[in-house]
Task: structure prediction
Amino acid sequence: MFPADSVWRADVSKLPVHRSSAAYVNSIGADAHMHPDFGSGTWEGAPIGIPVTAVKPGQTTVKVSFEYASESDKGPYPVPADAKVEGGRGSDGDRHVILYDAAACKVYELYAAYPSGSGWRAGSGAIFDLRSHRLRPAGWTSADAAGLSVFAGLARYEEVATGRITHALRITVPRSRDSYVWPARHAASSSSDANLPPMGLRLRLKASVNTSKLPKQARVIAEAMKTYGVIVADNGSPWYLSGAPDERWSNDALRALKNLQGSDFEAVDVSGLMVSKNSGAVRPG
Result:
């Protein structure tokens, strides 16, 4: 993951509630229930969630051509022939391809990715150095609408198995505003409605919500949402929580997260954490 003092790993449990919290939650859906958009098994023949492909040392790189080339990192990208595609190779959805190079401490991310000749084509792409606080240039997208790393915000089984997730999680909202807040770098809307959440908005599960009776996998995720919160990263269905597919997930346990609803969350003001608008680092203490 990113450094220990990254905004993704910042404890937001004691930050002040955002002055527009109620409006934001209502616009996302105060009565709408959380939906874990990942799990075990398949849906329409594909694993459920955004898969992560582990890149082996020395993986051959390929050229990727981009629809939004001016806001994409040129690469090349170490895409193996068997790279996992969100929704499966036949999907017509977001088709994220997430490549995790543990040895180099980098993650390569593609949106709307398709094999093309000896390489790939994609809507957009971004490369993140997981040792760095560097954000994308202001106004740039990534493989995510908010210009953030998709990988950074995924719930992954191997983390939950340790009993603790130590970073914020990625969610989608039905409608957003034509604005973004730190650490996001890109907006994805034409609306100026101040009641709509901007990309990058941080929310947390309220401390008053009792999570003690949730099944373990759901409880670990819920506790992370209390401590580290969730970040608005894309437009989509309300309170859809992103994660990586894994056959070790218990879908029954994850389903318990659907008991949470929008009114259980509150937006927080993270401006006091910011060291620089162009850095993902947070202030000490």
